[in-house]
Structure formats: C-alpha cells, structure tokens
Amino acid sequence: MPRPVPELPMHEAKPRQNATPPPLMREMLRFGTVGGLGVAVNFAVFNLCRAATSESVVRCSIAGTAAAIVFNYLGYRYFAYRERDKRSPARQFSLFVAFSLVGLLIENGTLYAATYWLGWNGVLQNNLVKALGLAAATAFRFWAYRTWVFLLPSGAYGRDSPAPQGRGS
Fold it and tell me: What share of the chain is helix, strand, coil (3-state, %, to 5)?
C-alpha cells in the first residue's frame, strides 16, 4: 500500500513586489535604447562612407558621429528624457551639441591616435578602436546629459533620484 503524502501547509500568497526598476535603472535603460540605435546609425554611416568614398577614416567617423548626434538628440528629448524640463529648448540643444562635440573628440581622437600614430588602419581595427572610443564617449555623455542638459523639473528630485552634483541653477 502506498504511503500517504503529507499535506504541506498553505502559506498566504505574498503580495507581488513592484517589478518596476529603480529610477536610475529606468533612465539607463532608456538611455541605452536610444544610444544603441544611435550606435547603429553611427557605424552604418561610418562604414558606408568608408566603402563608398575615398574620405579618410577619421572624416568618415566624424560623419557617422554627426548623424548619430542628430538621431540621439531626438531620441533623448522625446523618449529617454521626455519627462524632463523642456522650458529652455535652445539652451538644452546648445548644451547637447557642446557635450556631443566633446564626445566626438573622445571617440574620434581615439580613432585618430590608433590610425595615424599606431598605424592600425584595417577595417576590423578601425571598427574595434571606434567602439572603444565610443564606449568612453558614452560614459561621458551619460553623465553630461543627465547632469547638465536634460534636467528634472524644479522640485522633482526625490529619495530615489538625487539631484545631480555640480549642476548650475
């Protein structure tokens, strides 16, 4: 005769925890989504320019970065940072372009150094070095955009999203 299976005590079902990620994580996910698409635009224009023109590798990279800057501004303004303060669009755009140009220098300075100082001029080498420069520029841009460009409205800083340090008021 089979042994009876003991009944397990029924526990109260735990209420479902809020599955929404913390504000900084949500911001990073939206930033990454737009940025990832911007990277695709950047590399597509870069490699198309390399294949279709006789322009230098750095000029092709600058063209790709410029196309991505325009794409990213629209994506950040209307998707990633849509809840941020929009009262000063001219100031916001000016700062975005200024910080994007610094990122362009980081990204393309890396490529320039590898190409002209180290002699790394193969397609794979150019793409790998461009990716490395882009990663460094992305870290800078994330900090700059959230701290100086796409500001939270006044009084919107809560416990989970501290006010960025060093931000001018």
Answer: 65, 0, 35
